[in-house]
Design goal:
By secondary structure, the chain is α+β, with helices and mostly antiparallel strands. It has six helices and ten strands, in the order αβββαβαβαβαββββα. The strands form two sheets. It has an eight-stranded mixed β-sheet, sandwiched between helices. A two-stranded antiparallel sheet has the order 7-8. The longest helix is centred in the middle third of the chain and has 17 residues, at about 65-80.
């Protein structure tokens, strides 16, 4: 191998360590929330694992049902592809309504495999709205006196160090093949 080839290989390896083109590398701040079992669950539980996250709420009139269905499909595809060490995390954006029990029943409606799928709650509305903006660069807002929450519909791919690598639509025309390819690149 020539010196120029070696130099190019080193540069490419250094620039693209994640294997994800144009990786965002947005670090997620440490958190501990409550999962659908009523137990503490946080960033430390996800350390060393690849994960896909989204923001949903169980009382949603429109986008959250198909998003959750798409997340479950992605969970099944990852399993079929033999992708190990991957977790799926749906973060509630209506924590007053979405108790652990409510989230568990919601997941059961979709036949979620809870072994690596976690629904999270256990904070106040103001906190989750700020957490979404600060960490995921996404908008979440529950208008005063309303039962619906305004939010984005993306799926976020997070690496083993808790950094958001990229995001995809979680609602329509989901790029399942691309997500699977990117998961494999992180393994």
């Amino acid at each position: 191998m020539g010196l120029l080839s070696l130099l190019i290989l080193v540069l490419l390896t250094g620039c693209g360590q994640s294997g994800i083109p144009d990786a965002k590398n947005w670090q997620i701040e440490d958190f501990t929330f409550t999962n659908h079992e009523g137990e503490p669950f946080g960033l430390k539980d996800l350390k060393g694992k690849i994960w896909i996250a989204d923001f949903i709420f169980t009382n949603c009139d429109d986008v959250c049902l198909p998003m959750t269905s798409n997340m479950v499909k992605l969970q099944m595809l990852a399993k079929e592809e033999g992708i190990e060490n991957v977790e799926f995390v749906s973060i509630s954006i209506d924590p007053k309504v979405d108790t652990p029990e409510t989230l568990k029943k919601f997941g059961e409606q979709f036949n979620v495999d809870f072994s690596n799928f976690h629904f999270l709650t256990g904070y106040d509305q103001e906190f989750i709205e700020q957490f979404a903006v600060d960490n995921f660069k996404t908008f979440v807002k529950k208008p005063e006196g309303q039962d619906q929450v305004i939010h984005g519909t993306d799926f976020f791919l997070i690496d083993q160090e808790g950094k958001i690598m990229t995001f995809y639509t979680g609602l329509n025309d989901i790029p399942f093949d691309e997500i699977i390819k990117d998961m494999k690149a992180l393994q």
